[in-house]
Structures are given as C-alpha cells and as structure tokens.
Amino acid sequence: MRKARGYARANLVLGYAVAAAAALSLPNPFVMQFEGNHASNDGLDQVEKTRTTVTDVIVDKQKNLCFELSGSPVEFCNENLMHLKTLEEMSKLRKQLLQLVFNQSTIGALNEEFSWPYGTMKDTEHAWRVSSDKHPLLLNEEELLGQAICAGWADRVAKCTRAISVSSEGDRKAKAARYQACMVKETVFLHRWSSVSNSAPEFLVYSELLRTKRPYMHGVTTVKPDWLVKYAAPLCSFSAPLLDPKPYYEPLADQVFCWVISTFGPHLWQLPLHSVPISDNVQRVSVFAYALLEGQLLPCLGSVRKYMSAPPASILRPEALGQKRVGNLLSKLKSRPRTIDCCSMLREAWKENPRELHAEILDWFQESFHKQFEVLWSQMHLEVLLDPQERFPKKKRGKRKSKQVL
Hints:
Layout: H1 10-24, H2 42-48, H3 57-69, H4 73-80, H5 84-107, H6 121-128, H7 139-152, E1 157-162, E2 177-181, E3 187-190, E4 203-205, E5 208-211, E6 215-218, E7 221-223, H8 225-231, E8 236-238, E9 248-250, E10 255-260, E11 262-264, E12 269-270, E13 274-277, H9 281-294, H10 299-302, H11 324-335, H12 343-352, H13 358-362, H14 373-383, H15 388-391
Antiparallel strand pairs: 1-2, 1-4, 2-3, 4-7, 5-6, 8-11, 9-10, 10-13, 11-12
C-alpha cells in the first residue's frame, strides 16, 4: 500500500488492521455457549449479518465499534452476551496501538518505511468509525489484511481434513468442518458462527482454541497456500530443484529461478510448487545459458531457435556437459572474474568486450545460418540495453505464481 500514493482508503485499512491486532490479542469476547444451548441470540444474529468469507476480524471490528458507540456498555454486553472486561481491554488496546503507530510515524518521519503519508490519527479514527455496511473492505484489502494476520500467526495454521456437511433439518445440526492444526495433536473444529464457515477454506490461521465439548478455533482467517511460503518460510521444507517444470529466467528480477516442492509444518502439508532463486553457482550458470538461447533474456534469440543445432533445453541434461558446444559456453560464462548469470552482467561484459561469447553462441547455430548471425548479434547488443518492460512489453510484473501440485 505504501507504493500506492494517494490511496483514498488507506486510513480505513489501517483502522481495520489496528482493530484486528487488538481483537486477536485478547480472548473471545462472547459468553461461551457453543454446546448444549441453541436458544436464539440476537447479538450473535447481528454479528452473522456482517458475515464475510475471508476473516473473522471484520466481525470483530464491527462488534468493537458497536461497543464503543453504545451509550451503555454494560447494557450492550448483557444484551449481546459479551464480556464487558474483554471489550473494554480490546477498546483500550486498539487506541493504544493506533497512538503507537502515529508516534512511530512521527519519530521515523525521515524513514519512509515507518512514515504514514495518508493522514493523521484523527483521519484514521474517523474512517474506522464508519459502519462496515457503508464502507466494507474491498477483496484486495481483505487479502492484504489476511496476509498481515498470516505473517503474525503463522504458527497457528490449520488444514481442513473434512469439509462441512449440513443435514436436511437445517443449520442447528450442521457438522463443523474438521481441521488438523500445527500446534496440537487433536482434531480442531471450525464453528458455524465463524465468518469463513460457509467456505471451509483449505488453510486458515486462528488466534485461540475455545474448549467446550470439543476444541473450536476462534479468530479465524482464510490463508492462501502461497502466503505460507512467503510469510512463514522458516516453517516450510523445500525439495531439491526440479527439472520439470523447467527452471526459467525472470526479466524483472534479473535472476534465474527453479521450481521446488514445498511442504509446511510438522505434518508436512504439501503446498503448490514454488519457485525460488537458484543458489548453486553451477546450476545457475547452466539455467542462464539455457534461458539466453531460449530467448527468455533477449527476445531476438527466441525467433531463431529453429536454426539451432540442438534445443537450448539440452543444456539442462547432466549428460550434456560432455558436448563441446555446451562445455564451451558454460566455461566462457564462468571465466570472467564475475560470472555472467544475469542480464546486467551480460551488459557489463559486452561493454568491456563486444565480442564476448560470440564464438560460443555462434557454435549453437547450423552452418547455413552463420551468414545471418552478424545481424542477430547486432540485435542482441541492442536488446541487452533495453529495460525488461521494453524487451517484454506484454510481460506482467513480478515473478511467476506458484503452480498447483497435481
């Protein structure tokens, strides 16, 4: 959001974030009546009217707001079966956290990372006090909030093991979705009062377990699998680099990446295939050489692949190291004091010596194409000077998304 200058809803999102941090730091404010009592409850019905499909903190924000705006807090809690002390502490903590944010913003005004350029504390408080019905969070804003919650509660992830099934007699006999949690060995459950109960997401995070006849998760937020890799990498395990799908070069990052199998937590839940920068020097050079000839680096090479003596992907095969053209190209890329394994290094090498790699790349083409190679070589030198967006105008920003494991 810091990159979206002039974002009109920034104060609203900050207000939700601070309220979420306060709500998730305290116990469940509702009087426990999960089991054995199915009497109608006006307070809970009112909360369900604000139901979303992403996170419980939207509901937490609304009940906190209703409490702060109520003329009689005691009467409000009695009518809605909520704990007065918990809501008082939640309200105080929310205000303290908001004050802390703006105090830090003032102290760190010279540091852009800690500054808040969208308004004052009063602006944020005003935006937060608007009802969720009038100004609900947009889907991308809810996801932004969900990512922040995932980063803070990554050790409380749970995976769905059985989705919801509802009897013909209605919701009161609905079977709660079952989950396996990272922190506990027992099965935990998603209660029908949760804002995400209708969707029963594959992964979620929770703030606490409420133990009645069985443990229910409270403060639930839907989590996308790739968020776990991004925000909880220390809890993930990664396989060795895969050759299928093939590794690739990302122009915007100016790096080569490979795909790995990722798993999460002690139960080794499998996540979608994830791409990571290649750290091994030998493999990185091999993938860069393949990407260069493939046209992933300089588009002009992609248009002449049919004139090559062998497919660029052959470089990735272990047995290819014995081939002369493969060995010569890889050796040349590694012969400089700074290995040529990205576009910036190739640009630097050609600045010092415009004929660098000429013979090694020429050797990859059929002899019938050699007369046309100089035109291609000149085009390569022009393209290496261009920005990624100019070389690949249709390419989306950022690196490729994770792939789903089949």
